[in-house]
Amino acid sequence: MTRSDIRLGADIGGTFTDIALDMRGTLYSTKVLTNYGNPEQAILDGMEIVCADAGISFGDIDIVIHGTTLATNALIERRGARTALVTTEGFRDVIEMRTENRFEQYDLNLKLPTPLIPREDRFAVKGRMNAKGAEIQPLDEAALEALADTIKAEGFGAVAIGFIHSYLNPAHEERAREILGAKLDVPISISAEVSPQMREFERFNTVCANAYVRPQMADYLGRLQDRLKEMGASCPVFMIHSGGGLISVETAAEFPVRLVESGPAGGAIFAADVARRFGLDRVVSYDMGGTTAKICLIEDFQPQTARTFEVARTYRFCKGSGMPISIPVIEMIEIGAGGGSIAWVDAMGRIQTGPESAASEPGPACYGRGGDRPAITDADLVLGKLDPDNFAGGKIKLRTDASRAAITRDVGDKLSLDAQAAAFGIVEVVDENMANAARVHAVENGKAIGENIMIAFGGAAPLHAARLCEKLGVDQCLIPRGAGVGSAIGFLKAPFGYEALASKIMPLSGFDAKALNALLDELKQTAESFVRAGTEGEITREITAFMRYAGQGWEIPVTLPDRAFAPGDHCGIETAFKQRYAQFFGRAVEGPEIEFVTFSVKAQDIMAAPETVALDTSGKVRDVSPCREVFDPATGAPMQTLIAERETLLPGDRIAGPAVIVERETSTVVTSPFAAVIQPDGTILLVRKGPKA
To answer: What positions does the domain MHD2 occupy (predicted)?
Structure first.
């Protein structure tokens, strides 16, 4: 299969479903409200719109690339299948005991997150592998036969199997699946396939999460394919996974936990493509949709990646307070701050926003769909940032009176503020929350946030980006074309890719080149087999070893050359490790043993580089006449603000703030300290005002 002429990206979010159609370089896009009862229907509705705009039928589409938050939402809202965990005797409570770290050290009332699978649904059987993968106790097959009858009788919808040290030797897990599968007609996930990495808590939790959402996701993906075929779209469907690559629908249905961050991953790819186009080697992407906001650091045109991330943190920004998922993922920080996030006043009289969201059903008060609680969108509307008659391309008429009433009742009256002042308080709180999240994410990665250029996208991000830049000390921000559906566009730019991992502790002093080559060859074969399901093109590989000094609790990534290793290569690997260690911690340590812990092979097809564009920070002043009143944070009062249609602006045009640049899927608010300069490719550059403002 080769890259196709007509490609469609579909991103199901918590509030909107975004569709982007690339027809031989021409982009068509739309946003429709997410249908929670039948998510695939929103995709079909959006496809009808963009196909009509492009003058094509469903049958003309060559490939559909899809990402969704359905798996994430199922985990957060605990709406998955009733799942049984089968584990090694003595390890029944691993997912509840966690690592025993206190993520909030001085909180005497600290509450740990509730485990995904309750204790009564966790079953232990005898059988044991040691730390080298050798069997020291045989698997109790009779107990598994009896357990299968229990699981069947109690009506479980899925089974997760996680045994001690199975990442080294999966024989017991595979045999347990065989025994249970002979009596059960439910999906069975084993940790050695879902996450073959050391650390039992993370691995067990990941296989539990995979099993928990697997029936729901398999059912959904099956319905989607059937409905597409009914509508005449016989093209293949691929899914974007959390690491930013494309995999087949069949793989996604078997390993749905890989989809947990698929939508945000598309946004990071979109931002990385924009960064490469403008030659920006240090950017921060800011993706704000209807339900959440995501911040991601991108260096040298690549988003930062990790092997573990957390879903549903119970303490804001606190690592360790969420549900760990041990899979390759684009690293970002995500908070409940979207256009649909509910605003409220806490017991101390402080305005709070989120994490609860009005989503698409019933939606913010201004949607007129039954929602009566104030959301961020309501506050933006009251402040004049949004045109009530031109929201979502005019498909949704907003009710300003409903927004005012909701804000006054739930926020204004409690704080003795009028609707406008309360609305300003709401957006200031959400902007400050996002700024804090960005600062925390940068500090955790040893970076200074103000040194980056921001790339903002998502339906709500351009409304808040300039104010966020003010708070963070960021001087420039790019709003690309199609920003309102940025993640869906990112899907179209994603490579076919997969990352295979395996844990095996190997001391560098006893470097065994033959064993290392055999392990890496197996990982290369695994990764490439997934990639070949989607492309016959040239594949590139990235080899990473996660290494540490013996006795340390965590590892650092060290890039290895993609070739067969010889016995004498241990010196070069040691040098590479010490250089990376010095980058992380200031200096290397002499003396302690160095060891390998986990190995990663990332394979992906080679994408064509985008055409480069020179960044224009000056521009020529463009006269814009239409105006309306928009609240100005600098003066604390409404003021006459320039309103410009994005499609009417030409490359080189410069508009000084305050201004609002409107388009079909979003609006860009240019605050007083900034000016907007239109780039040669139509991207909006927000630049802090200088002498030419």
So the answer is: 513-624
